[in-house]
Amino acid sequence: MTITAADTSSGIDAARSPALRTTRPFSAFERMIAGRYLRARRKEAFISVIAGFSFIGIMLGVATLIIVMAVMNGFRAELLDRILGLNGHMVVQPIDFDLTDYDEVSKRIGAVDGVSLSVPLIEQPALVSGVGAGTGAIVRGIRHAELEQVNSISDNVLEGTLDNFDTAEGVAIGDGLARKLGLRIGDQLTVISPDGDITPFGTTPRVKTYPLNAIFKIGMSEYDSTFVFMPLSEAQLFFNSENKVGVIEIFLDDPDAVPVLKDKVADATARPHFIVDWRQRNQSFFLALEVERNVMFMILTLIILVAALNIISGLTMLVKDKGRDIAILRTMGASRGAIMRIFMITGSAIGVTGTAAGVLIGVLICTYITEIQQFIDRITGGQVWDPTVRFLSDIPAQMDVMETLAVVVMALGLSFLATLFPAWRAARLDPVEALRYE
After folding, report:
1. Cα dist. 135→171, 387, 428 in Å?
2. Which domain holds residue 405?
3. 3-state SS class at 17
4. Are the C-beta atoms of 122 and 238 separated by less than 8 Å?
5. Distance of alpha carbon 55 from alpha carbon 61, whole angstroms
6. 129 and 267 share one domain
């Protein structure tokens, strides 16, 4: 598009008007010229295509960054909640002699301010089998009173009941393990321990069958396919651990209070012991998640950077194409600052609209991510999110306001920086040289 003196006179009084020279920064006049440059005509279609690609690049970059960060945050939060919902925040292990005084030790630990639950338990690996299938599992012996307070289990019972857990002589297993073994409520689960009875011919495995009284689903496939809960008294008999337990698991009101409460718990234990907290047990796992999250942020930021470079190339071509128009505006009294601001507005408009569209798409996808997952599953007939590979049953998404604002500021900042050089080139254009051959 070519802007002549006649065209421009509709927005100002006349050529060389003092009003143009005194135009305030980012005035209606500058916004009008920038808007006309954004609405390219047919002969400027190539420049318009570059601007469109820049818009799409920024939009997709911002949306992808918001979605990926939200999923990474949700994945970490869900894993932390479910791992710590089943496992204690601290574990007290005995040293020198067996933990036979577990009731007294558990009561002293439970009285510490900040400790919500202290659970004596036995945890042993075993082989389990059902209807024509068998697998490895982790058997936990726990009393009914403590099991009811482990909300990740008691609040997620799908079938059966935990009532009379101590006296029913039955077990509770995860939904994944029940499906793997082909078991339902009332069926028999066979537990095999390699640490059995000692005979003249060696150690024989211990085998016992238990009725299935409850099936739970935590929502974390590894746990739902691994754990078997049985009464503590029965586990003591089965694993040759009469009158003793293996560990005491401690649940805190605030998991992040471990550094503060660790010494208090140690004092309350009042016996030789070794304490391991949840940060030590899962350090490598959560560190890997954090590294992956940071790397993904850096990689996806490159999408926005490439889109910003497209803004530079598009504006540079626009400045070259509009050299005559810039010269006319300069001879009419437009300052270098006004010319620079016109092209800054032109480029920044692409970044602002692309960022706004990206935020809208990202928020919508994060809000309805479960419905989108189910829709894609129905169309493809498969599973987009395989829980056996990714631990969780559904795609989690947890948006962080400050993180989203950081993405928006970064995208707007890169878009603004991309306009500076082409706008500076336009402001330095010499009107005499531009109009010499016109």
Report:
1. 16, 18, 76
2. 5-78+286-435
3. coil
4. no
5. 10
6. yes
Helix (H) / strand (E) element for 227: namely strand 227-231
Among candidate residues 241, 271, 301, the one where a domain is terminated: 271
pLDDT at 393: 60
- The stretch 232-236 carries a mean pLDDT of 91
CB 323 within 8 A of CB 402: no
238 and 366 housed in the same domain: no
Q: Which of 124, 142, 143, 222 is nearest to 177 (CA)?
A: 222
Q: State pLDDT tens for residues 118-154.
A: 999 999 999 999 887 888 999 999 999 899 988 888 8
Nearest alpha carbon to residue 151 among 196, 85, 57, 245:
85
pLDDT band at 13 (very low <50, low <70, confident <90, very high): very low
Residues 72 and 126 grouped into a single domain? no
Q: What is the pTM of this model?
A: 0.65
Give the span between the Cα atoms of 430 and 132, in whole angstroms.
87
Domain end, chosen from 215, 242, 271, is at 271
CA torsion sign for 53, 59, 60, 65 is positive
Work out how many domains the chain is built from and give that number. 2
Q: Tell me, yes or no, whether 244 and 302 share the same domain.
A: no
Residues with Cβ < 8 Å from 274, sequence gap 6 or more? Answer: 92, 93, 94, 95
User: Please, which residues have CB within 8 angstroms of residue 338's CB and are 6 or more apart in sequence?
Assistant: 20, 23, 25, 29, 30, 329
Residue at 84 is within a domain: no
Task: Enumerate the β-bridge partners of residue 128.
Answer: 135, 191
